[in-house]
């Protein structure tokens, strides 16, 4: 071969090497510029979107000091939710209107020798506060006996008796914990604990899911939210906003009216993929009729259970809706196995007695109460603190 031929071969080799290096650099450059991917691998049930919270993965703690002189890039700061413990105590003043129940009872009972009209007044007070007929009769029987035995008008004694009896009605022995113990599947892999939140629209369901996510984040859990209220498009946006404030991803569909069970399934799947320990799913649960509701909620629960068992079904009830709310609660309880109740809007209502009525009616504990519109105004329910607030 001539020198010229060798030169030509060398030039060709250089050109090929440069071209290959160029292509590789371009591809990896594109990949890097996409940043952390939010597009998930295709799933069997439906395509879904994950709204990654801005700053997801960033800590609510102090950011580490930059190691270079490069200009600082603003990282979105995540909110640090208030600790869940002690919230009921902190928000005690919000129960002021419900407190009228305790104050009225105390003032009547302190009159001494009670006449029939005093007892009627007590009965009316309890019924107006939505305590319910059964528990009202029960409490009055006990108070009649106790006040006879006690034979005193001493306010401290009367208060002690009333506190004891109210507490018994609210039942401090009920298990109000969320069951978040880790689950290991048949495959030996850890599964997230899944929770379904159900209830009539307008009761504060989506808001409760957002607030509950904050409670869980405050307790150190890794949470994924599922926006399975596909009936109202704004509900998914609302949930995405809640999630983004505390760095919790929200799985939602890009299609309005999408199958809620598919979104719930995808949320659990995403929870498993990312190693989250709790997946919390919001639903629409419209009350057209009981059969429709049973079908919808039953399907969501079954489909979620394919990925991980549903540990908690929380029913959200608006405390201000009285008997109407109780009827809704019964329909939901017949449609799906409810494990706990969230009573919203307990601030600003005098109908705190509904705590007693709904627990009696459904045999399910009130686990949380909504005491305002603020992000941390959802409190784990503590029977003693509730009764003390009624009597303060
Ligand atoms: N005062 C008060 N307002 C509340 C409480 N919980 C929720 N709300 C308000 O109730 C309204 C309805 O709340 P949403 O979460 O949208 O109700 P939801 O509708 O059941 O949700 P969708 O099913 O998505 O329609 C909002 O204005 C909330 O701020 C509470 O505990 N106290």
UniProtKB/TrEMBL annotation:
Region (Disordered): 31-88
Annotated localization: Cell membrane; Cytoplasm
TM regions (residue ranges): 6-26
Domain of life, source organism: Bacteria
Keywords: Cell membrane, Cytoplasm, GTP-binding, Hydrolase, Membrane, Nucleotide-binding, Receptor, Transmembrane, Transmembrane helix
Residues annotated as binding GTP: 199-206, 282-286, 344-347
EC number: 3.6.5.4
Enzyme class name: hydrolase
GO molecular function: GTP binding; GTPase activity; signal recognition particle binding
BP terms from Gene Ontology: SRP-dependent cotranslational protein targeting to membrane
Catalytic activity: GTP + H2O = GDP + phosphate + H(+)
Function: Involved in targeting and insertion of nascent membrane proteins into the cytoplasmic membrane. Acts as a receptor for the complex formed by the signal recognition particle (SRP) and the ribosome-nascent chain (RNC).
HAMAP family the record matches: FtsY
Protein name as catalogued: Signal recognition particle receptor FtsY
Organism: Georgenia yuyongxinii
Organism taxonomic ancestry: Bacteria, Bacillati, Actinomycetota, Actinomycetes, Micrococcales
Gene: ftsY
């Amino acid at each position: 071969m001539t020198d010229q031929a060798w030169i030509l071969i060398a030039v060709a080799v250089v050109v090929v090497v440069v071209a290959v290096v160029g292509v590789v650099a371009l591809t990896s450059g594109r990949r890097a510029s996409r940043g952390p991917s939010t597009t998930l691998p295709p799933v069997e049930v439906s395509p879904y979107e994950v709204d990654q919270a801005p700053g997801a993965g960033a800590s609510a703690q102090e950011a580490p000091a930059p190691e270079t002189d490069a200009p600082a890039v603003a990282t979105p700061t995540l909110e640090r939710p208030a600790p869940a413990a002690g919230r009921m105590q902190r928000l005690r003043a919000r129960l002021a209107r419900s407190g009228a129940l305790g104050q009225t009872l105390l003032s009547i009972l302190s009159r001494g020798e009670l006449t029939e009209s005093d007892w009627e007044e007590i009965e009316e007070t309890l019924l107006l506060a939505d305590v319910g007929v059964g528990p009202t009769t029960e409490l009055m029987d006990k108070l009649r006996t106790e006040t006879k035995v006690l034979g005193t008008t001493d306010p401290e004694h009367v208060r002690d008796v009333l506190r004891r009896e109210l507490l018994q009605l609210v039942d401090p022995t009920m298990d109000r914990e969320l069951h978040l113990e880790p689950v290991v599947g048949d495959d030996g892999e850890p599964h997230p604990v899944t929770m379904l939140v159900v209830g009539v629209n307008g009761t504060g369901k989506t808001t409760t899911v957002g607030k509950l996510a904050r409670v869980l984040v405050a307790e150190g859990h890794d949470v994924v939210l599922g926006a399975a209220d596909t009936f109202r498009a704004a509900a998914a946006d609302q949930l995405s906003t809640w999630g983004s404030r505390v760095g919790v991803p929200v799985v939602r569909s890009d299609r309005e009216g999408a199958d809620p069970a598919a979104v719930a399934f995808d949320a659990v799947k995403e929870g498993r993929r990312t190693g989250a320990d709790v997946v919390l799913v919001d639903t629409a649960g419209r009350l057209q009729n009981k059969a429709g509701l049973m079908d919808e909620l039953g399907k969501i629960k079954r489909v979620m259970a394919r990925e991980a068992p549903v540990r908690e079904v929380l029913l959200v009830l608006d405390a201000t809706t009285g008997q109407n709310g109780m009827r809704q609660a019964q329909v939901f309880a017949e449609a799906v196995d409810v494990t706990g109740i969230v009573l919203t809007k307990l601030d600003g209502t005098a109908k705190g007695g509904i705590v007693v009525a709904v627990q009696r009616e459904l045999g399910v504990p009130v686990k949380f109460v909504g005491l305002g519109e603020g992000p941390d105004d959802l409190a784990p329910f503590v029977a003693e603190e509730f009764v003390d607030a009624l009597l303060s």
